[in-house]
Amino acid sequence: MSTDTTPCRYVDGVRVPLSPAELAAFDAERAPRPPTAAQLRAAAADARWRRETGGITVSGISVHTDDRSKMMIMGARIQAVADPGFVTQWKGADGQFIALDAATITALSAAVLAHVDACFAREGEVLAAIDAGTVTTLAAIEQAFADVTAPWG
């Protein structure tokens, strides 16, 4: 039994190394394929979701931005608008509790909304770039979402 791993073919039971042309064709078949537009679009949606729900810091307060947290923030904002004297204990993404007054809750919810809007706006930009053929790699998508507040493209 041979331990040689050189690509080969067998002719009449005899092991024959591939010619340079055959080897090039063999390597081309094994080469990783670039992602399709559909794969890039799915990767952009995933990158947007990870950035959107990954949390932010607002005026030194570490804030969860997952869907449940966004609903809780909106509920607190509704109460803050109804009662300007409203104060609540809030648990930040860092595990620390902080008393939030109505004005802070309103500012925090506005910052979360701006963050979510920026994430979706960036996804739209990336999808347009995929369609235009200017974004062709997964790395380019990750780079686009590294900082959704910075200009891109």
From TrEMBL:
DUF4376 domain span: 38-141
InterPro entries: DUF4376
Origin: domain of life: Bacteria
Pfam families: DUF4376 (PF14301)
Protein name: Uncharacterized protein DUF4376
Organism: Phreatobacter oligotrophus
